[in-house]
Design a protein that fits this description.
By secondary structure, this protein is α+β, with helices and mostly antiparallel strands. Helices cover 17% and strands 30% of the residues. The chain contains 1 helix and 7 strands, in the order αβββββββ. A hairpin with a 6-residue loop joins strand 5 and strand 6.
Length: 151
Amino acid sequence: MRRAQWMTILCTAALVASFSAAFGRAQDPVPPLPGTAASPQAPAVTPSKPARKKYSHANDFLIRGTVFTDKALSFPGVQLRIRRAGEKKFRWESYTNSRGEFAVRVPQGSDYEMVVRAKGFAEQARTIDAKTGGNEESMVFRMQPTAGGKG
């Protein structure tokens, strides 16, 4: 390398080091001056907004499985839609990966309906009980072609 390139690299490294050191010092709290009482300030509280609890996936229910064609080949790109039993609107949507596999997390404690759709194949629906037992359900779908061959 030429000398000018080395100088550019060294100067850039020095600048990065000095900026990171200065940024680190700026994040440290300022110590109180000698002779003054250190009075911690209370954080500002807005009474109109209640504190939201952070959501944890620890209690989620995992729905996983594989979708195959009628010839027992893995089926990538199949649409999966999930809703709570009795609801009209689907709340979760996913697609199978390149190996025809899927995994979707839903809140535990409800019954769910899963609908699997692919063009040219009959739609399939299954119910899933996420109220009792474990926290995971494995399933396998084998898609059947529609009579006309179109979906």
